[in-house]
Amino acid sequence: MGFTRRELLFGLAVLIAAVIVVTGPVSQYLAQSRIAHAVQKGRELNLLLSQYALDNDDTYPIGQGTTALGKSEGIARNLLNDKYASTPDIFVLGKALAYTGTAVDFSDFAANQIDWDFTAATSTTGLPASAPGLLPTLYATGETVSYPAATGTVVDLTLSGNGPFGLKGMVVGYKNNAVIFIPATPIGSQAVAKGFILPAFPGGSYTQIKP
Questions:
Q1: Which residues contact 183 (CB under 8 A, 6 or more apart)?
Q2: Per-residue pLDDT of the chain (211 residues; tens, 9 = 90+)
């Protein structure tokens, strides 16, 4: 015997309800998995920066010897050319395009292929290895950062929504090798990454390096 129209509608309603119940946990799992993967990339990249400094006069890369000095892609080229990074995938968090270039020296690695901002001493001088542990050394791109000059200043970064995680939060790696995801805190109509820089940070003059 066939199903009646009422039975079919009831069955469809049950199916839709089941999909709704399952979709929530699955979406949440995928979001958490993506965050965990991004944090792991941040840990690996932070370590590569430290290793580069150990081998290069205690100074982090800044794009030396490339056509992208003082840019995030220049730092990526340094790490790739000098064999610290084994794959360009480490520079992508989900918004940037995957690298498909063919240049042996990665000179075709472009700004839209990296999802990280970095910290440097100046736009042409790499971060010294003596920088304080609470200094953000790398973070998901898309935001504008000002580093406090004096100690005791908290930086709660208002998110623009332009980063890989939009208004949900951001991945931050610090000089002490801690890498975390700071979930956004809603404050009024804004989304804020609270504690991006903590009050124990001693302050100093630093420069944000963007793609």
A1: 168, 169, 193
A2: 555 666 556 666 666 655 555 455 545 644 688 999 999 999 999 999 999 999 999 999 999 999 999 999 999 999 999 999 999 999 999 999 999 999 999 999 999 999 999 999 999 999 999 999 999 999 999 999 999 999 999 999 999 999 999 999 999 999 999 999 999 999 999 999 999 999 999 999 999 999 9
Entry pTM: 0.85
Q: Please, which residues have CB within 8 angstroms of residue 36's CB and are 6 or more apart in sequence? A: none
- 60 and 116 in contact (C-beta within 8 Å)? no
Q: Which domain holds residue 100?
A: 5-209
Contact between 104 and 157 (Cβ < 8 Å) = no
Q: How many domains does the chain have?
A: 1
User: Quick one: how far is CA 8 from the chain centroid?
Assistant: 48
Contact at 8 Å (CB) between 145 and 129? no
Place of tokens 């918004």: 95
Give dist(CA 47, CA 159) in Å, integer: 26
Phi, psi at 56, each rounded to 5°: -135, 65
Alpha-carbon span 45 to 72, nearest angstrom: 13
> E-strand spans in 43-99?
none
DSSP summary character for residue 164: T
Place of tokens 């100093």: 204
Assess contact for 204 and 147: CB atoms under 8 A. Answer: yes
